[in-house]
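INFO  loader      accepted 1 record
INFO  loader      residues=289
INFO  predictor   begin
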Amino acid sequence: MWIILACGSALFAGITAVLAKEGIRTTDSTVATALRTVVVLAGAWGMVLIVGSQAELAHLDAHSTGLLVLSGLATGASWLCYFKALQLGSVSKVVPIDKLSTVLTVLLALIFLGERVSLIGAFGVVLIAAGTLLMLDADDLRGLPRAVHNGGGWLLYALGSAFFAALTAILGKAGITGVESNLGTAIRTGVVLVMAWVMVAVTGKLHEVRTVPRGELGFVLASGVATCASWLCYYRALQDGPASVVVPIDKLSVLVTVLFSALVLREVVGRRYLVGLALLVGGTLAMLM
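INFO  predictor   done
INFO  writer      dumping tokens
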């Protein structure tokens, strides 16, 4: 069952990126992140009430709560980086970089969670890394040092998103041991919401909330609904299955994203990109074996 949930997570995650891109054409990415998190939080706590897990709040221990809060902070950082990268770069480029979190998650799962990866699984990790590099233009790679020096650029934000996403998975896996998955998701989302709105206030963008175009607001909120569905599937799968398998399945969302970015956003991908995509998918499937 957890494999089906992981696949559902991939589908909704892939749709999220395209919806978000449409919603941040003129809207600030930090403001959009804060707005969409409201939707995610409502959906997450709605599921908690449906399954009746709110009673477990009184039984949460300090260890699990602390890990869930840290996981929420890592998620917030990942989201802020991810949507900034989407605003600055194309979906078809940003999403593959975000999938490097798979490689980082597997490494962290080996070190901190004691999970094992087979030889073919390790080969899959190599394929994912190689495929991601092929999906980048040479100019993007050459421009990375300059972006680091200037403290900006879509590639730098995308790499930050991948790092924090990997950290999220590890902290989430450790934090939801013995915690009902929907409740864990709701708690983490609450942390993300607070973090996002604090960032909006600190950067002086509260006034922009009222001026978000209605059309873009619709896409932003829709991306929140898709994210909520993805999260609920993902963290239930993560609770029942190993992180080193659940995460790679979730990362197959890149196929959905690339398809919709081509059909809806009219982004063009070349032969090199498609070869890299094939390697990325092949590596992911290898890890499932």
